[in-house]
Design brief:
Blueprint: H1 3-11, H2 15-18, H3 23-52, H4 54-58, H5 66-73, H6 77-89, E1 94-96, E2 101-103, H7 106-109, H8 121-131, H9 134-143, H10 155-166, H11 168-175, H12 182-188, E3 191-195, H13 201-209, E4 214-219, H14 222-234, E5 240-244, H15 250-253, E6 259-265, H16 274-284, E7 285-296, H17 311-327, H18 339-349, E8 354-360, E9 363-372
Parallel strand pairs: 3-4, 3-6, 4-5, 6-7
Antiparallel strand pairs: 1-2, 7-9, 8-9
Length: 373
């Protein structure tokens, strides 16, 4: 490089630092941010509408005044009236200003009520749950560490509701058939483990459907396991057991060849030591066993996730829950968006001889990995 060229490059202005913002770009981004503020606010009110039962109270009902809706739902009229205001300006609920009555259109009720096949109001709850630990997360940004499971009062409750309409309806007819012959084996009677089972809703469904098989659930959360045990007892499921267990050392503590099927449902990525869990699952599988893992659909590279339909939501959940609960245990902090590339590498390092990646039409958010010894 000549001295003249070097001098020219050193004196050239940094376009990225000094370039004036494009007014049209500023206006477009402002519109986007204002829209995001409105939509995020609507998610909080949608969560309240779900939890309070207001959407369910309006489903199929004739137009109601705020007072009539409050009475129908057993709630305080002043709060219901203000909530209705948010729903009207958010174009969720319709208002007849002449009669002062409100109605929930059937098209909206089909996506916001407990009778709906896909109740999107369930997912709105994540915004409030994650927002409740914002101060804790900010402290972690500054000091490191993580936020423990105990700080999330309702996360397992919301996850169970989420699972009830995403995993459970598809489990028997779509997920299990990914492994040929698995349903027949379950009907004949095999040993099954769900690692990171949460409240155990998937295991309860399986235990009811396949009474000849034996089912075991492990999860770190004492509260989730206590709920699962009580529910299993209430259902009279004597082929199902739950244990609160830290799986960080599962690579050495897993019982050898003890299970014919092991499942994880969105559970690997928030473990303290996910590779140890996977090595333990490999150790726990019988020679002809199958490991079925549902985990978040994504790439291990940010730029490949820019077109993900739920990308911002999933990265937020990862930062404010999945990653941080792992770091709270001095763990790896893998995060929900660990991605397919990393997942396949971990499965191989854990000792699985074959890994098959499946997608299901009803589920744009998850991959379904079939791993064999």
């Amino acid at each position: 490089m000549t001295n003249a060229l070097q001098s020219s490059l050193q004196s050239a202005p940094d376009q990225s630092a000094n370039q004036a913002p494009d007014p049209a770009g500023v206006e477009a981004f402002e519109a986007r941010m204002v829209g995001a503020l409105n939509e995020a606010s609507m998610m909080l009110m949608t969560s309240l509408g779900h939890r309070s039962g207001l959407f369910d109270a309006m489903e199929g009902a004739p137009p109601l005044t705020a007072a009539a809706l409050a009475e129908r739902a057993g709630l305080q009229e002043r709060y219901v009236r203000e909530w209705l205001g948010a729903m009207v300006v958010g174009a969720v609920v319709e208002l007849d200003p002449e009669n002062g009555t409100y109605r929930l259109p059937a098209e909206h009720a089909a996506l916001l009520t407990r009778s709906a096949e896909a109740n999107l109001a369930v997912y709105a709850q994540y915004i409030a749950v994650l927002g409740s630990v914002e101060d804790d997360i900010l402290t972690c940004f500054r000091q490191g560490g993580g936020v423990p499971y105990a700080r999330y009062d309702r996360f397992h409750e919301v996850m169970a509701e989420d699972s009830a309409q995403s995993v459970l309806p598809a489990l028997i007819d779509h997920i299990l058939p990914l492994a040929p012959g698995l349903i027949e084996r379950l009907e004949a009677g095999i040993r099954v483990l769900d690692a990171g089972c949460g409240r155990g809703r998937a295991l309860m469904l399986l235990a009811e459907r396949f009474p000849k098989s034996r089912f075991q659930g492990y999860d770190l959360s004492e509260a989730a396991i206590a709920w699962a045990r009580a529910e299993a007892v209430g259902k009279g499921l004597d082929n199902l057991a739950f244990e609160a267990r830290d799986l960080s050392d599962f690579d050495s503590s897993a019982p050898e060849a003890a299970f014919d099927l092991v499942t994880t449902f969105d559970a690997v990525h928030d473990q303290a030591r996910p590779l140890n869990l996977l090595k333990g699952i490999r150790r726990a599988l019988a020679a002809d066993g199958v490991y079925l893992a549902q985990d978040i659909k994504g790439s291990s590279h940010h730029h490949h996730d820019r077109d993900h339909p739920m990308g911002p939501m999933l990265y937020t959940v990862s930062c404010m829950h999945c990653m941080t609960v792992s770091l709270a245990q001095d763990g790896e902090g893998l995060g929900a968006m660990w991605g397919r590339e990393t997942a396949e590498r971990y499965f191989a390092e854990a000792g699985f001889a074959s890994v098959e990646v499946n997608e299901l039409e009803h589920d744009p958010v998850n991959y379904y990995y079939l791993c064999r010894c």
